[in-house]
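Explain the record.
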Amino acid sequence: MTSNNNDGDAGLEQIHPPATPDEVAAALEEREPDPGDDDLESPHAAARRLAIDRLGIPTEVRHWLNTPGAQFNADPVTAALVKSAAQQVAEALERVQAGGVQAERMADGLFDFATLRERFATPVTPVVDRLVYPDQTAVVAGAGGSFKSFIVLAVMLALATGRKALGLFDVPERRPVLYVTTEGSRSLLARVLAWCTANSVTAELLDGYLLVETIAPDFYADGPDVDALLEVADEHDVGLVVVDTLARVRGAADENSSQMTTVLATLERFKAARRAAWTVHHANRNGTFRGSTAIRDTPDALLEVTRDGDARRVTIKAEKFRDHPQGDRWTIDVEFAVVETELRDYLDRPVTSLAVHRATWHDVDSRPASAPLPDAGLEGNVDKILRTLADAVGPLTNKELARRSLNVEPNGDVGAAYLAARRDAVDARLVDDEGRRAGRTKLYALTSLGRARLAAHDAGED
């Protein structure tokens, strides 16, 4: 089917495959498994071989198509034929792959209610309780200098070592983590060692569990560099992938345009593989969100980090946790400490770094009912105060609370025991005395934790 004519156009005119790429694609879709196929041959290779057969590629051209990486020294006519044939094969495979993936996706997403119940009735086991889920994308946003990279690193290291994340969130199972750090990678070792020191962890415990990539992949192009990250995540069964920062992986995408939807779609590829994927995003100095609204709207979760002035203290607010019943909104306060590491600088001075010192629930509603509380038993006056508030229609003033719980006269002395019990109940977050006033009079109300504690006590579980 080829000619000895050295005119490339003349040679191309003589290759007329018996089937078009569309026809080949249709044949591939309908193809039944061939018992004669080599079991070691990949499905892609088998489909490619069949495409070459169906397209009627000449024997001398097949050699170059079937020998990837071979030294290409064919004459110009054969070279032109190979290029044309390779393009036809690629088109046929692309069409059958696009059609097959879409059909599979549609079939996988369509089911009746019985299947819906069967598929989703089983509770999802979080990677980190109330914080990280296996099929979750999240954006951690904060202004520069808000310590957001320290926060995500602390979460990753807790997961990699099986410790409680930030001292508050349980880790059901220790898992490897993948950190794509494109900013501050030089200081990463000091940060890791500082965290280990602050948490009494031997750094060697991270061997094989903390994987680091310092070259920024292009999430807008979504090319081989992203494929390589996915392969690493699969190979090591990574529980959490963190990309720090989103700005460094957006490639040529305009941060203020809908092009960021494409960038975030690449992050979704990790979610499709049942791996949690977080990315760190810079907010403006005034705390407003920067860039396209897709950055806020597309991810499953959004954590906003705000620094308290120049202090080494931040507040993390969980703005949303899509689809996860236990991933409710919460706010925590995190304090940092300067920790000395084993590293030395060029003058032999110890290298220091920040590490999370302490994290606390910011408010009553954030704290889970099962969280450890300060010691406040339900004996004596504390029990009376809680039950009085539970029976009340609304918040009570201090005098009314004392009168009802202790049968004290309106102007009578409540006594030091009552004041101590009320203080204990407030400190334990069983009673709320914040933001509830009638004029200048402070009001007291039972919190959800107080109700839960009463219920547990009455059930004999306290």
